[in-house]
């Protein structure tokens, strides 16, 4: 049953993103930023963790999870280290993902030639 919920919740995030493209005519950058903010707001309200427990990868894989990671790391470090933790928590939680994206993008750029 967890696979069904993961598929439905993850698909719902994708439908929202696609509607932003098609109906609202937002650019990919605006759509991606909006989805990150939605994930951040849901985590700030304490709603994202129950969603991840319910939907599993359907909620932890999409771009909204990045917003969740940003806020979750900031809040966790705020409680542990005070106000400086707001900044360090963001870097602590998201640094591996951002570093991997940069490294793999660079490697892909070395291998693939753009058309044009």
Could you please describe the fold and organization of this structure?
The chain crosses the membrane at residues 83-112. It comes from Paenibacillus physcomitrellae. This is Stage V sporulation protein AE. Keywords: Membrane, Transmembrane, Transmembrane helix. Helix 2 (28-44) crosses helix 5. This protein has helices spanning 2-22, 28-44, 48-55, 57-60, 64-81, 84-111. The protein has 116 residues and is mainly alpha-helical. It is built from six helices and no strands. The chain is globular, with a radius of gyration of 16 Å. It has one domain. The chain is 83% helix and 0% strand.
Give the key terms.
116 residues; 6 helices
| Biggest sheet architecture | none
Distance between the termini: 46 Å
Low-confidence segments, ≥5 residues, pLDDT <50? none
What's the structural domain tally? Answer: 1
Proportion in helices: over 70%
Order of helices and strands: HHHHHH
Strand tally, please? 0
The count of helical stretches stands at 6
Give the overall average pLDDT: 86
Using only C-alpha atoms, the radius of gyration works out to 16 Å
Inertia-based shape: globular
Give the amount of beta strand, in percent.
under 5%
Going by helix content, strand content and strand pairing, the class is mainly alpha
Write the SSE topology.
Blueprint: H1 2-22, H2 28-44, H3 48-55, H4 57-60, H5 64-81, H6 84-111
Helix pairs in contact: 1-2, 2-5, 5-6
